[in-house]
Amino acid sequence: MWRAPALAVLVLGLAQATWGQEASSPSGGVTVIAVEFPGAEQTSRTYLRSVVRTAAGEPFDEAQAREDVDRLLKTGKFLTVTLETEATPDGVVVRFPLSERPVVQEIRFEGNVKFKEKKLLSSVPVSVGDPTDAYGVREGREVILGMYRKEAYGEAQVTIDEELLNRGILLYRIEEGPRVRVRKILFEGNDAIAPNKLQQQIQTQTYVWIFRPGLYDADQVESDATAVQSYYRDQGFLDARATWRVERSPDGEELTLWFTIVEGPRYTIESIAFEGNQVFTDEQVLAELTMAVGNPILKTELDRDAKRLQTLYGELGYIYAEVQAVQVFSATPNQVLVTVRILEGEQVRVGRIVVRGNERTQDKVVRRQLDLYPGDLFNLTEAKSAEQRLVQTQIFSRASVSPVGEEPGVRDIVVNVEEAAKAGDFLFGAGVTSDSGLVGSIMLDIKNFDVFDWPRSFREFIRLKSFHGAGQRLRIEAQPGTEFNRFRIDFTEPFLLDKPIQFGLGGYYFERERDSYDERRVGANMSFGRRLHWSFLEGWYGELAFRVENVNISDLHFFAPREVRDDKGDHLITSTKVSLVRDRTDSRFVPTKGDRFTLSYEQYGTFGGDFFGSLVSSYAWHKTLYTDVEDRKSVLTLRARGGAMFGDAPVFEKFYAGGIGSLRGFEFRGISPRRGYKDFAIGGNYMLMTGAEYSFPLFADVIRGVFFTDMGTVEEDFEITTWRASVGFGIRLQVDFFGPVPMEFDLAIPVSSHKDDEEQIFSFFIGTVF
Fold it and tell me: Domain 514-769 belongs to what topology?
């Protein structure tokens, strides 16, 4: 009975010998009796068997064997790999004939002067004993070129000796060329666009000692020329062309880079047509566009208008709408026809809302940031805003709001969040400033606190498994210093009773030495705030706050003025404060565009029955004037702040100016009306400050420069008797030293002051967190 199968196997083997060794392989339960690798001389059989999955004693699988061919090729050790099978009475022999790549036996460098051979050898990704993989060899060449270009050898050339490579010797021949720095970048032919606009489009930069190496790279310059040409065409110069050339210094080490532009005519829009719009009429769509007939054709406008229309549709539930603005040349010279093509899709409403990823955070903490409910039209703009709000809570490191489902006209919302890695931050820090001397900081900050989640055991408390998950915030901070001491504890509930009302409760202790007295404050505050939706205050934030504190004035200077002596002792003060804030900046901490306006009035009352009030307003405006190729922004900031006191306010509540964050060029609280034998500051009832600041990158993301002017005054009455002003320059550094260390150094020269003002040319701040 065994002879029939054996005969079939023999016939199959003869057929394979007749028609070629890579004929169809046996299958159907035939066993592999051997796996061979003809041609393997340098590669061990153990390694080869570890790569392939076909093995002796296993059933033969042709598909798996062909995958083994790919696995062997992917190792990079072989030039070719094929598959052969040989049927025998006992089973099948599987062979993988292969040709090995030569092994690198030696790595050499010729022509290198700038870099030693040891440095080059440690940088290239190829080692002796590696196969002569073409990719690795070319990568080594690119690494060497990159090293030279970083050192301003922009014309360096690196070649590989292919003949030696075939014998296992990897030789990199290096022609270093001169060390070249770009000293000037000039443009010619650019009548319509200013050079500074074109400079923003290129990555090549001029040499500035320490700050910019001025590297010359011909490949990069070619890309820069293409970028300039693309920019021109995006501005409507559809026929524009840009080329480049260099002019060398006599020693060949410095060059001037010229970009030559042929602008051509600027094309304008002859007509605007619409396709596919059913929800909106042509007139309604046209009203949303910034481009117009007769205007230059600008790519930025086309893209912005398409995005605006897509957003408009997305706000009405057409979440799959697609908008494309297409331009074609007109028969009329120098004009184009624009067609806005709209694919509206179906209108979608919200189905279920599902929250995922919140392992320890309550569902409601996520849901209340989403202003969408079942049955609402699916608003994509609101969905994106909710993602931002979730991340801004600092409870979640990531958030996404996505539509899911296939039911006609309905999509469920899946909110995926990723909780922050830490339940809270326990931070130690230290700093020193010209305003406040040496200051330490110890802080516990829990951003996802739950006042009702009490621990069931001491171990649960120690492991931070309690007081967590309700989206509340608890912050405890102590700041001991050489000139002041402060302690604060603050609790915030962002949604009081699950309503969009932020509730805050805090207590504090503060003491500081002033020029003519010591001041100590102990108090508590409570606040209620919410986002306003009234027509004229849409987007504003309003807050009502209450404060009670005891202020103690003691240790008066022997020559303290009468105004200070009158306020000696304890003062029990209560106050009610109403605030309005409109913040349209892109970042609360480092704004680069937008503005922020605040207005507040605080009414005070003392235990003795005296009443006084304080009205304060501030405005700051930010605009990015330039963004370089590394996405670093140069930002202009304008700001103003004013205040007025009403009634007989004590010296410790009046206005003072001077120092960091106020008027640089003057000491902290160095601007004030003065009294007494020593001309001690007593504070003013009226304050006005303005300023401008231009911040720009100097080196990487580490150093920024600042030009600024500060102006203002503090007066006893509603008048201006002396206008103070200063101009200056500053440096901002961000250094890693046990964490980020921000440093600020400012030099400011007063150009207008009062004879009694306390001036300070140099001011600084250095702080860190451990």
Answer: Porin (2.40.160)
Q: Is 3-100 assigned to CATH 3.40.50.1360? A: no
Q: What six digits make up the tokens of 470?
A: 């309700």
> Is the pTM for the entire model greater than 0.85?
no
Closest CA to 340 of 387, 296, 391, 282: 282
Buried/exposed code over 640-654 (b: 16+ C-beta within 10 A; e: otherwise): ebbbbbeeebbbbbb
Contacting residues for 450 by C-beta, under 8 A, at least 6 apart: 362, 467, 468, 469, 470, 472
Q: Please state which CATH number belongs to domain 349-419.
A: 3.10.20.310
Q: Are 468 and 449 in contact (CB under 8 A)?
A: yes
Report CA Rg, the chain.
37
CATH of the domain spanning 181-262: 3.10.20.310
Closest CA to 505 of 486, 522, 519, 526: 526
CA–CA gap between residue 335 and residue 479 (Å, rounded): 67
The residue extents of the domains of the chain are 3-100, 106-175, 181-262, 268-343, 349-419, 425-493, 514-769
Highest mean pLDDT among 88-102, 253-267, 621-635: 253-267
DSSP state of 676: T
Give dist(CA 353, CA 369) in Å, integer. 12
Report pLDDT digits (tens) over 641-689.
999 999 999 999 999 999 998 999 999 999 999 998 889 999 999 999 9
Q: Which amino acid would we find at residue 70?
A: D
Question: Are 181-262 and 268-343 the same fold in CATH?
Answer: yes
Task: Tell me if 722 sits within 8 A of 762, measured CB to CB.
Answer: no
Backbone φ/ψ region at 769: left (φ over 0), alpha (ψ -120 to 50), beta: beta
* pLDDT tens track for 368-422: 999 999 999 999 999 999 999 999 888 999 999 999 998 999 999 999 999 988 7
User: What token pair was written down for 522?
Assistant: 């102990």
Q: Which CATH class is domain 268-343?
A: alpha beta
> What is 106-175's CATH topology?
Ubiquitin-like (UB roll) (3.10.20)
Cβ neighbours of residue 15 closer than 8 Å, sequence gap 6 or more: 23
DSSP 8-state class, residue 24: P
